[in-house]
Here is the input.
Amino acid sequence: MTGMNTAVNAKSPYITGQFNHALFLQFAIYAGIVILIAIAATLFVSRFRANVANGSSPFASGPVAAEPRARRLLRIGFGAIWVLDGLLQLQPQMVLGLPTDVVSPTVSSAPSWFVGWVTFGTNAWLRHPVTAASATVWLQLGLGLWLIVANRGWLSRSAGIVSGAWALTVWIFGNGMGGLFVAPISWMTGAPGAVLFYGLAGIAIALSIERLRRPRFALWSSRLTAIGLTYFAILQAWPGRGFWNGGTSKSPGTLPAMAQSMGSVTQPAFASSIQHWFFSFTLTWSWLYNALIVITLATVALCFFSNKAKYMKWATTGYVVVAIVNWVLVQDFAIFGGMGTDLNSMIPSVLFVVAVYLLVSETEHAGLEIPVLNQDPEKVYARAVGTTAAVALCLLGAVPMALVGILPGTSSDLAEASTNSVQSLSTTAPDFTLTNQNGQKISLASLRGNTVVLSFLDPVCTNDCPVEAQQMRIASEQLGPNSKTVFVAVNTNPLFRSQATLRTFTSEEGLSSFSSWEYLTGSVGELQSVWNSYAVGVQLESGGGMVAHAEPIYVISPTGQLTSTWTAVVGASSLNTVLSQSGVALIVSQVKKAQ
Here is the structure.
């Protein structure tokens, strides 16, 4: 039995250093790519200008269909939001905190089938967290710039496709489908999820201009928006969901409790003050604020269902005002506290609602006639160069992100971010002589020439020790038969010291056939001497045969020098599997360093 549970430290200095190092190297790679693009553009520019002067520009310079205002708003607006999201991903806590502290708690009360989907995504991230986190930064920055720079043609529509695909992936695996399976579902708190609006915007950008200008497309866009708003208005108005009641300061209702929680988050003083005020306000007036939200959603839904721009104009204005107020009061600006991943749902929903209004308005005035404009060839060329650079940045993140889910093995990053990180050592390992599971005398000195992984295990333990033994077995397999590594475990149970007990444990863990496995025991005095030499505290537990003991792992070089030590990484709850895999990777990496 272990004396502690391994916890993951999202602020681990090791992880921060690894993350910064990865970002620096990747930025250096991208800088080299941009230099090559700049050189190619410089070599091409003189020829380009000569072609323009001769009227034979390789880029279209004649009349083209004007971009609808709705599309331009979605493209530039969500492009800017993707850039902001990419910058928010630079927060060091995102590397491990995003899957463990943001995503997993969000879906903890969701149906088991859905939790399984999300767990698949978080585990894929945690197997290679530094790679996933740095890839997300470049992917979102590149995607945002791509949307902003590419304003027409297949490159622009491709940006919409990529944006929509990535957004829907994040919505499912990272956003928990906006909390649609976690009660109480509420428009106020973020349903149906900010990233769903990113996805819908991406789909709209990917469509042709001709399709966007069809009256039927505008009609369905406005009415589907109305249906969605009606759904959330009904949910918000439904009695018994907690939004009408303020409660008391000791037992606050849903809204006051939320404001109280938000007010305790580390953030600028002005934001905290707003939350403290909103807490006091909603204790008495929760019903009034909830009524404002219900009336706004229902009214906007009615106006949008009419598909008449003159009604939708005022409804859109009201929606924008109420959404921004809700973003401040309920969603608390969404980006403070060190773990803000995006602006939450209000700002994206505002962009979406305004875009639907513009779509209907423009269709009413223009009908099927598509306005045209002339292009400036030099601007077209500049956009082409900028788009190339943006796509390169996007690929810098997209390629490793696509590989994260299929990369074999697990990095040691998660293990090294556990509460007890790896300590480097450079002293001679204290020698000892004990008896292995087969009755042979084994001394540490006799193992010189091999790298030794030294652990301390209880043979009757039923929780952590078997996990550690399996980590040793898998690490031995990964290192291979030619690694000259011996895995030595010292018995920590003074009550169960027989060789038969050790052989039973060895057999149950599938280690009997491993020639590199030595499980050692001895008299209580001999064991106590080894425990003292390696700082292993052992305490008998009342009732039962297991003991509470420290679980250090030491790596000893072929010359007998201690090179590193850490507390065994076995994990807790849903992190068990990935933590154990990361623990194996940590053993393998430290052995290779010692050889």
